[in-house]
């Protein structure tokens, strides 16, 4: 996460990593989040349409919310829509695609020196104890 950078693109990627890792969301669940699905006061995220079409509420720790705040501060400058959206260009404000998230995560892993293949789903499965 240190390699994400201190700019809007880095904040968005850091926020995505935190939501996948600390809240344990699947990538499609994270991409479906809207700003009104987050409740920082209670520390919860609302997944409206999870696996099997189920609705669920998940918690996230304070450290996770701290990592999410820079993106939440920058997000209102963009057109309304999904929490994780495209930042630049003619499609600005439209939902970020799962392929683009995976590509960014692989690029970041390589930049950080991770030698093994990386997939965002690994963040979700690492949170469970064996």
Strand content: 5-15%
Give start-end ranges of low-pLDDT stretches: 126-130
Helix content: 40-55%
Neighbour order of strands in the largest sheet: 1-2-3
The 3D shape can be described as globular
Q: What value does the average pLDDT take?
A: 86
Question: Care to describe what's here?
Answer:
41% of the residues lie in helices and 8% in strands. The protein contains 5 helices and 3 strands. The chain has helices spanning 8-22, 27-31, 62-74, 98-111, 121-126; strands at residues 38-39, 44-47, 56-59. The chain has a 3-stranded antiparallel sheet, with no helix packed on it. A hairpin with a 4-residue loop joins β1 and β2. The longest helix is centred in the N-terminal third of the chain and has 15 residues, at 8-22. It starts with 7 loop residues before the first helix and ends with a helix. Residues 126-130 have low confidence and may be disordered.
Summarize it.
It contains 5 helices and 3 strands; from the N terminus they run H-H-E-E-E-H-H-H.
Topology:
Blueprint: H1 8-22, H2 27-31, E1 38-39, E2 44-47, E3 56-59, H3 62-74, H4 98-111, H5 121-126
Helix pairs in contact: 1-3
Features:
130 residues; mainly alpha; 3-stranded antiparallel β-sheet; disordered C terminus
């Amino acid at each position: 996460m240190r390699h994400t950078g201190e700019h809007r693109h880095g904040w968005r990627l850091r926020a995505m990593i935190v939501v996948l890792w600390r809240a344990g969301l699947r990538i499609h669940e994270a991409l479906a989040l809207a700003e009104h699905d987050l409740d920082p006061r209670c520390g919860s995220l609302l997944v409206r349409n999870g696996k099997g079409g189920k609705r669920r509420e998940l918690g996230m720790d304070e450290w996770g919310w701290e990592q999410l705040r820079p993106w939440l501060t920058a997000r209102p400058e963009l057109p309304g829509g999904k929490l994780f959206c495209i930042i630049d260009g003619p499609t600005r404000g439209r939902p970020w695609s799962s392929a683009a998230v995976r590509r960014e995560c692989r690029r970041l892993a390589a930049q950080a020196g991770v030698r093994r293949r990386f997939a965002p789903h690994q963040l979700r499965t690492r949170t469970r104890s064996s």
